[in-house]
Amino acid sequence: MDYSMMQETVTILIASYQSGNDLKAAVESTLAQDYPRKELIICDDGSDEAITVDLLNQFSAQGIRIVRQKVNRGTVRNLNAGLRCSEGQWVITLAADDRFKTIHSITQLVSEAYDTQAQWVVGRTELVGCENVWIDKSPIEDIESNTNPYAFFETLCYSCWLPSSGNLYRRSFLEQFGLYDERYYLVEDWPLFLKAARSRHSPRRLDKITIVRKKDGVSNKKAQVNFKYQTDLIEIMGKEILPYLDLLPSEVQKKIYRRCKDKEQIFQYRFYKKTPFEKMIWFIEHPMVIFRRLLERLKNND
Questions:
Q1: Are 169 and 90 spatial neighbours (Cβ–Cβ below 8 Å)?
Q2: How far apart are alpha carbons 240 and 188 in whole angstroms?
Q3: CA separation for the pair 210, 213 (Å, rounded)
Q4: What is the pLDDT of residues 163-220, one digit of tens each?
Q5: Exposed (0-12), middle (13-18) or buried (19+): which is 17, by Cβ within 10 Å?
Q6: Within 13 Å, how many C-alpha atoms sit on residue 22's CB side?
C-alpha cells in the first residue's frame, strides 16, 4: 500500500431527512474510521421532527459540519449542496441508515483505489433485517472480462443493481459528470452510473463488505410506492437509457426498449388508475405487460 494516500482527504457525506436514531449510528461509524484524514458533513434535507433536529444540534455542538436545507429539496440537491461545501479529494456518500462495516472500511477503499489507480471503487453492501442477504449480486467481474465496451451500460439499463453506498469517487470523477444530476429529485446514483458507463467507465470492485444497510431503513422502505422516486425512475429511463440504445446490439435494444415501456405502463397503473373500473380496463389492455412482469418475478425468485 502506498502510504502517501493517507495525505488525501476523504469527504463522507451523510444524507439525512427525518432520520432519527439511524443518523446517530451512521455518524458514530464514520467517526470510528481509522483513516486519518476525513471530512464528515451531514447533509440534512429540511428535517423538522424533534428527534432528528435534536441530534443535528448535538452534532453541530460537537463540531461536526451540518449543511441544512431550509425546505425539503430532495436527495440530489441535498447531496450536491454538501459536495459544493466539501474539500476532500475523495468522496463517499451514505444514507442515514447506512454504517461502515468495520473501522477499516474507508482505508480499504482508498487502498484499493491507489493500488489499482482507479477513480471509482465500490465495496460490497450487506442488507440486514431478519436475515443477512447481499444487496449487490454484482456482475462487475464479468463486465471487466467482457470485450464489449458498453457491457456495463447494458447491465445498468435493466436495473440499478450497483449499490449507492460504498462507492468511493475521486472528486474530479464526479465533477466530470457535473456532480449529481439535479433534473431528478430522489435518485442520485443511477443517472451517474449510466453516464459513467456510457463514457466507458466502470468501478473497481473491492471484494470486501464495506457498508451495512438496514432492510427496513429509510433508504429502502416505501420506495415502490413513493411517487417522486418512481417518477425519477421513469424519467431516467427516458433521458439516460432510451436515447442511447444505439450503443447496444440490436437484439438487446429491443429487450431494453420493451422493458422501459412496460415500466411506464406499470407506473401509470400504480399511480393514475384509481377506480376498480380503470384498473380492470388497464388489465384488459395490457396482458403482455402483466405476463412479462410475472415471468420476471419468477426468474428473480429462482
A1: yes
A2: 13
A3: 10
A4: 888 899 999 999 999 999 999 999 999 999 999 999 999 999 998 999 998 866 555 5
A5: buried
A6: 20
pTM passes above 0.85: yes
Encode 186-214: b = buried (16+ Cβ within 10 Å), e = exposed: bbbbbbbbbbbbbeebbbbbbeebbbbbb
Helix runs in the chain, H state only: 21-31, 50-61, 75-85, 105-116, 140-144, 151-158, 171-176, 189-198, 227-236, 250-272, 276-285, 287-301
pLDDT in tens, 110-129: 999 999 999 999 999 888 86
Burial of 45 (C-beta count, 10 Å sphere; 0-12/13-18/19+): buried
End-to-end CA distance of the chain: 41
- Tell me if 38 sits within 8 A of 64, measured CB to CB: no
Burial 150-172 (b: 16+ CB within 10 A, else e): bbbbbbbbeebebbbbbbbbbbe
Instruction: Tell me the C-alpha distance between 171 and 182, whole Å.
Output: 18
Distance CA 79, CA 219 (A): 14
Q: Is the pLDDT of residue 4 over 80?
A: no
**Residue given cell 437509457 in the structure block:** 241
**H or E segment at 43?**
strand 38-44
Query: In this model, does residue 144 exceed pLDDT 70?
Result: no
Cell numbers at residue 172, please?
474530479
Four-residue CA torsion sign, 302, 167, 178, 142? negative
pLDDT (0 to 100) of residue 149: 85
